[in-house]
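Q: what sequence does this backbone want?
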């Protein structure tokens, strides 16, 4: 563990340096921070099996206060509203790994991966913190909101891991990408109605396809490219696999009572919905088996290969969708390696640091991510794959 005063000295030192020294800074940062404190593989965390009622008495609901951050993820919002995560919404990887395990039985490898990319894309690599909502000076050691990738936007930040075609959130093009939209909740409910009112995986696949179509038809800047879009697909599966009362596929029921409470969708007498802070349903049971990174990638592949939801983007106008030129993704290893490579290939376009610094940072992140993916037997990263992304980015920029 690096001593706090050393870290402080190191950071203020960097402020006296011209931009050309970002190189050494980032190098040093990676060695000290990424390799030590932010893990690819998690230390063993108690694996929880068997149904457990959540929340327990130590985790009462409290509505968020004015300075508490909440954002696009109903799962993290509800955990913060019950104190399974810091109620401020300013979190570390360790907070996430233990909070999502306790509240939802998400396995440490999946939680470690999701929090790692959140810190790298939306948070602060020095403090290891990110905001589960908008930008917040509490994530940054010096309050400067200057992440090594350029900006600490929090999970709301669109160029990070927040993506288009979300279940209940608008595309960033329409202004607000993180607030639950009651009409979108009602639309999701109408799809569940086709499945006996249950939010099954099949219903969530239909929803993903509909949201994809709606974005193609209404959002000229629709951008559906991993990493964000793969996580966006995964998030639809999360609705079923985590919000179900009990274990989905093993007697658990993804009923309206549970799902509406997690989305903060309150039914009004006139039949429309309004948003209230997310809370655990009364008398609700957490899934009984951990849901792992492999499970998550398996779900993304299943959605992707059974519905018409290609990766790609609109070319600056509605209904101009160009699919990404990639090999068919037919097995879980292929999808896993594609997602791993996306972290490296799809460098956020908004970065303000010199490109070689960004590449260094990204490859350091990948070196932490790689051990998580080693069981998938991915080949070494092939830089020419970045061309697939470059083509879509050019289309979007109208060049
Ligand atoms: C482990 C760390 C997690 C991180 C960093 C994270 C982050 C995010 C982000 C950035 C989004 C927005 C995606 C988009 O724009 O499409 C999102 C959406 C979502 N997340 Fe999470 N999440 C995490 C864990 C969870 C957990 C444990 C659950 C469920 C218990 C969950 C459920 C969801 C759902 C249902 C959505 C979709 C919301 C919608 O589209 O309306 N997430 N998450
Ligand atoms: C339903 O009631 C709410 C609250 O009274 C109101 O804001 C909303 O406009 C109403 N919606 C419709 C469709 O009448
Ligand atoms: C969850 O399941 C339990 C056990 O079947 C049941 O008693 C309870 O009412 C359910 N709760 C919700 C919110 O559906
Ligand atoms: C990298 O990918 C390109 C395009 O798919 C291919 O032509 C090339 O042979 C690959 N290089 C390696 C080392 O696999």
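A:
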């Amino acid at each position: 563990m690096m001593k706090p005063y050393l870290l402080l000295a190191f950071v203020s030192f960097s402020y006296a340096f011209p931009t050309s020294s970002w190189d050494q800074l980032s190098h040093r940062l990676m060695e000290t921070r990424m390799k030590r404190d932010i893990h690819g593989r998690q230390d063993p965390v108690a694996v929880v099996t068997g149904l457990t009622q959540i929340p327990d008495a130590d985790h009462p609901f409290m509505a968020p206060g004015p300075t508490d951050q909440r954002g696009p993820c109903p799962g993290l919002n509800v955990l913060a509203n019950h104190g399974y995560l810091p109620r401020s919404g300013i979190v570390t990887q360790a907070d996430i790994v233990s909070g999502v395990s306790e509240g939802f039985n998400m396995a440490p490898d999946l939680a470690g991966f999701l929090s790692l990319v959140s810190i790298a894309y939306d948070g602060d690599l020095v403090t290891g913190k990110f905001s589960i909502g908008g930008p917040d000076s509490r994530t940054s050691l010096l309050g400067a909101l200057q992440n090594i990738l350029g900006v600490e936007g929090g999970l709301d930040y669109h160029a990070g891991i927040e993506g288009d075609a979300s279940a209940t959130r608008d595309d960033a093009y329409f202004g607000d990408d993180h607030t639950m939209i009651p009409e979108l909740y009602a639309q999701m409910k109408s799809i569940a109605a086709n499945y006996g009112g249950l939010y099954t995986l099949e219903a969530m696949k239909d929803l993903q396809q509909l949201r994809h179509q709606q974005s193609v038809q209404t959002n000229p800047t629709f951008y559906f490219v991993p990493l964000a879009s793969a996580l966006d697909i995964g998030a639809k599966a999360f609705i079923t696999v985590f919000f179900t009362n009990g274990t989905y596929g093993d007697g658990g029921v993804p009923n309206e009572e549970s799902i509406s409470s997690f989305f903060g969708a309150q039914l009004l007498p006139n039949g429309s919905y309004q948003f209230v802070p997310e809370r655990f349903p009364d008398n609700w049971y957490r899934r009984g088996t951990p849901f792992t990174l492999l499970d998550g990638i398996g779900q993304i592949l299943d959605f992707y290969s059974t519905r018409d939801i290609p990766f790609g983007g609109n070319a600056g106008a509605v209904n101009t969708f160009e699919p990404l030129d990639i090999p068919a993704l037919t097995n879980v290893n292929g999808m896993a390696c594609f997602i791993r490579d996306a972290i490296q290939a799809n460098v956020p376009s908004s970065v303000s640091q010199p490109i070689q610094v960004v590449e260094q940072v990204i490859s350091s992140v990948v070196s932490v991510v790689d051990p998580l993916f080693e069981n998938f037997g991915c080949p070494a990263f092939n830089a020419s794959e970045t061309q697939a992304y470059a083509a879509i980015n050019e289309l979007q920029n109208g060049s």
